[in-house]
Amino acid sequence: MKAPFSAYLRRIAPGLKELIGLLRQRYDYVSVLSSDSAGFSVSISQRAKSVTRETMATERGTVVRVCRNGLYAEAAFTGFDPANAAAAFETIAGELDDQLDLLNAAGVKPYETGILPDETRTVFVEMETSRLPEEEDISSLVDRLSAVSDKGMEEGKSKSLNMIDCMVRASSTHICKMFLTEHQDLRQSYVFSEGMCAGLVAGDERTDFAYTSLSGRSGPELFDSMAEKIPEVIRIAKDLVSAERVEPGEYDVITSPEVTGLIAHEAFGHGVEMDMFVKGRALGADYIGKRVGSDLVTMHEGALCAVDVTSYAFDDEGTPAGDVTEIDRGILRGGICDALSALRLGVKPTGNGKRENFAHKVYTRMTNTVFDSGTSTLEEMISSIEKGYLLEGMQSGMEDPKHWGIQCILDRGYEILNGKLTGKVVSPLVMTGYVPDLLGSVSMVSADRQIFGAGGCGKGHKEWVKVADGGPYLKAKVRLG
Amino acid sequence: MADMNNTALHTLLDVLKASEADAWEVTDEEEKGWEFYFIRHSLDQHRTRNLRAFTVKVYRKFDDCLGSAKAKIPSDASAEEMRRTVEGLCSDASYVRNPLYTLNKPAVASVGADTEEIDLKTVSGDFIRTLSSVPETDTEDLNSYEIFVSAIRRRFLNSEGIDVISVFPSSMVEAVVNARRDGHEIELYRMLKSGTCDREQLTRELTEALTYGRDKLIASHTPALGRADVIFSTDPARELYCYFVSRLDTAMVYRGMSDWKIGDAVAPDNLTLQAVRRLPNSSWNTSFDTEGAPLRDLTLIDHGKAASYWGTRQFSQYMKLEDSFDVYNFAVSGGTESAAELRTGDYLEVVEFSDFQVDEITGDIAGEIRLAYLHQGDKVIPVSGGSVSGSMPELAKAMRFSSECHQYNCHLIPAVTRLKDVTITGA
Fold first, then answer.
1. Which region among A187-196, A452-461, A465-474 has the lowest average model confidence (pLDDT)?
2. CA-CA distances (angstroms) from residue A70 to A46, A157, A340, A345?
3. Do residues B203 and B228 share a domain?
4. Please, are residues A308 and A217 in contact by the beta-carbon 8 Å criterion?
5. In what helix (H) or strand (E) does residue B165 lie, and over which residues does it extend?
6. Separation in Å, CA A158 to CA A206, B131, B368
7. B14 is a domain residue
8. How far apart are CA B331 and CA B344, in angstroms?
9. The pTM is what?
């Protein structure tokens, strides 16, 4: 079935178009993004259950972007009355003028920018889904997830684990967004879902959290396979309770697809967000056309280069979804860019202008960030390592686009000695390094590839949006602590 | 006390009273915000926010079980949309049955309503002028900054009769600092939250960042020290103390994520940690929590021993706590050594991390070093790269902290904290 476009947005569209007309008499450029996204989140554990009709992406509201004399401004609001666009116009114009009075009094000069193009365009996209979150049978879902939690407890106990709890979470969001200007009318509707299954397990001296995730641009049918995650959770839990501390140092490692994705995200995801080029905050601006990795490194970014939680038809500025080759066989080819930054840099936007929600500013943000596959097998990669680790599970990452430092906090390392896994596990791990050194050290790439979209991404320490990332297994050299 | 001339809210309350809900909670939150984005000192763009939404939670009672479900209802929702949403929530609530607990009741003693007058224009002007006058040099300056100023009006009502309102300011500055030397440029990041603009503190924090930027340019690689004493004297130190607070959260304890018991020795025996209702210029100076419980001062750790749990209603009641609440502001005291005394001998003082984290379940600490000062004998060497790691349950035993304190928004913590035998990976 097709995910139906919001009736609410259909209802307010004529009023918003009237508002655009009123604002255009005063401003050189006007656009409106209006969102109406519904969803649910269900959390089940042995000790507490909850259901909410909120997810990270549910929202309803509108943001107006205007430009006059080279200065851009925005007004975000809830509660639009389509029968009284004039009132909204008065409020928006009045408050933005109040801000200008303050700015003029403080002697602030604008960062002058041209006017965004507004070519005639109409898009109406309702993407396929099997089920809708707003129509999901929550009673049945709670029962099924409870059964998964029960099964996790039983399996854990059967493996002699001291299982404190088995937690399962499922959330699904039906995104509806409408982007309007004087000449554009873009509407899209799609559903994405994500889930988590985790075991809380007590060891002799500490308690650990073993988790796995699943995600996709699909409806709640995604959770039908949740029970299949249990064996993986139990395996990770067993590994964590037996884990030792790593001896700090530099090692040959193999990164699992999840860790590969984290490297992609932190290394040349954030590193080539081109709003950072405008501010002179990214070293990547000086490296276009230059080598930043080995010949085996090719990396793509874009809503079109995979199908996962952030594979939309157009971004929050109305730019069509794209697929950018950021690194081609080790050479940095280009970055991703929102529309306003593109205007300032004299390049084309790539469909990466995203907001945390309607109330937040647009920044250049990632969508799907993935390394291309290679030709090796995981077995060949393991057998090539004399002493090192197979790295699995991500906790968090942080970038430094100006200095190309990278920090990844990882869950587990599986020791490899003389080409074989020894069974010894180390946890947790802080992987640090210099991005070109890390990517330059990539010497083998596996033929398979996986994408993960259950996490969120911040810009600095705020502006949380959905992203997905992944890739194949990589063999590289890193520092572990 | 509360604004009764409010059609949408009254409609929602009528819908709730006519529904199958056995109990309910409503938070009516309005935010008026002004935002300003600067590249260098030029205005990138300016923004306004006028937001309002109702957060509704309904409860269904079944013998010795209670089910609940929550949703956000737009302020412009029609009565029919509100009715449909509440009806759906009543169904959802019947599927997730938890052990019985009750909602907060009106406080016997008035907690007083926070209804501060907040002039967005004045506060915004204070921030703009302060940031435009940070003492920059030819080699250290502000790359970009973002100013967020909000007035939050939060009204909470429940079916037990609570109807309280709080209006408070919440502000944030995100700033990126550059430093350059011999053609090489680096940046440091700051996210500074507060109630309104504290000109002196903001200038001090950013001036300090400019100094660190200068030192990062001349930093050498962090050596592989193995184990070393580490001093925390900047914002990441908060994470060490947040770990103690998290471990006493009833939600953590009830769900088995924390095994701390009241009376356990959990911190150095001179450490006392208090939840406090107010801290000067905190962005969380409100009089009640998200479930209408009045906030008050409460000792969580007393001379190193766990003294009180805290938390939201459900898990607190499961742990037999009747008058608990969510903690926003806290203060740490009890340091017996001065900052100068702690800064003696050999140690690594890490002032900038990429992202320092303390795992609240495992207690693992980890962070990449962006700038640290290695003190060895009489030498002080700026270093960068590598990481610190360790385990708080082990490190807390020998943790030392200063008598002098420093406030980071909601948290008043020792100005200097020293951990012994932290693992240091070299750059």
1. A452-461
2. 57, 65, 11, 15
3. no
4. yes
5. strand B163-181
6. 20, 61, 39
7. yes
8. 25
9. 0.96
pLDDT digits (tens, 9 = 90+) for A326-336: 999 999 999 99
Q: What is the domain count for chain B?
A: 2
Same domain, B170 and B256: no
Amino acid (1-letter code) at residue B140: E
Distances in Å between the Cα of B388 and the Cα atoms of A248, B210, B422, B423 are 10, 23, 7, 6
**Higher confidence at residue A404 or residue B332?**
B332
CB B385 within 8 A of CB A432: yes
What's the CATH number where B161 sits? Answer: 3.30.2290.10
B-proximal residues of A, 267-306, CB under 8 Å: 278-281
Instruction: Give the type of residue at B166.
Output: S
What's A376's DSSP letter? Answer: B
Q: Which of B47, B143, B389 sits opposite A73 (nearest CB)?
A: B47
The residue among A79, A133, A431 whose CA lies nearest residue A255 is A431
Report the chain B residue with the minimal C-alpha distance to residue A47.
B255
pLDDT of amino acid B113:
55
Residues of B whose CB is below 8 A from A248 = 224, 226, 389, 423-426
Are residues B110 and B197 both part of a single domain? yes
If asked whether residues B160 and B252 sit together in one domain, one would say no
Of B45, B314, B363, the CB nearest to A72: B45
Alpha carbon of residue A422 to chain centroid: 34
- Is the domain of B327 the same as that of B409? yes
Q: Which domain range does residue B357 map to? A: 219-427
Q: What is the pLDDT of residue B116?
A: 72
Residue B1 pLDDT class (50, 70, 90 cuts): very low
Q: Is residue B3 part of a domain?
A: no
Which residue's entry shows tokens 């009750």?
Answer: B102
The residue length of chain A stands at 481
The pair of structure tokens assigned to A114 is 């041209």
In chain A, what residues touch B129 (CB-CB under 8 Å)? 106
Same domain, B156 and B298: no
Residues 209-238 on A with a CB inside 8 Å of B are: 209
Establish if A405 touches chain B: CB-CB under 8 angstroms. Answer: yes
Number of A–B residue contacts, CB under 8 Å:
248
A120 touches B: beta carbon within 8 Å: no
The pair of three-digit structure tokens given for residue A153, joined into one six-digit string:
């407890």
**Which residue in this structure is represented by tokens 């399996």?**
A155
Q: Are residues B236 and B255 in the same domain?
A: yes
- pLDDT, average across residues A424-452: 94
- Is B191 in Cβ contact with A461 (below 8 Å)? yes
Complex confidence, ipTM? 0.95
